[in-house]
Write a structure and sequence with these properties.
about 110 residues, alpha/beta, Rossmann fold, two-stranded antiparallel ribbon, disordered N terminus
Amino acid sequence: MQASLGPKQAYRLWRSTQWGVDPSKLLKARIGKGLDHQGKNYELMSSVVNSYYPFPQYGQGLILLDEGDEVISWQDTSRALDGYFLIHAFPGGSHQFEHMEASLEMLRKHAVG
């Protein structure tokens, strides 16, 4: 999609799907060893978690959320970023964000302003 935009429009386009407002806070409970969604072992180090910054509350972004996210609360994200960004929450879905195709028109409109 970005290839069809001119250089003046492309710099304004960004979107976020299911981004935690404060990832270091969210991920602290997951520090240590575990299994990923493919059943493979991983180890999340505290140094990695502490390296994440809170989500900025400025810009011209579009926040797309799935209400069915079982990992990150869409309500918390919406409350924290409401008034700073355009926010759209889709009913259902999951943490993998299942509404990309349904979002295309919103993304296009956001990109061309």
